[in-house]
Amino acid sequence: MIAIDTNLLVRILTNDDPIQARRAVKILQSDDVFIPKTVILETQWVLHHAYAINKADIISGFQKLLGLSNIFPENSETVTQAISWYSQGLDFADALHLASSRRSDKFATFDAAFARKAQKVSSLHIIKA
User: CA 51 → CA 71, 92, 93, distances in Å?
Assistant: First the structure.
């Protein structure tokens, strides 16, 4: 199994550098691939902020990538839940934080907008600090 970094995912999902994209795809096809959830988080940020890729295309790219049989994201269930909540209007980072906290009873935040959205999608008790 090989773990990959954000820059490989960005090359694959954007094909902005075709030579590197081909090399990244070759790595993806050569082995089972582990993707840390921090890499997925950073990839979403880069795609959205640096490449101005819209949410629907980011979600579609993640779903296709994570649907490959040799791709193993860290905490797959958590990442899948975060993508789902992202599609329902949460910021991706907030969705991943919330999904990663499901073993807790409560989640505290100063972000009132996030708290309102989180209360709609999560069974955690959301505390507006």
Answer: 24, 16, 17
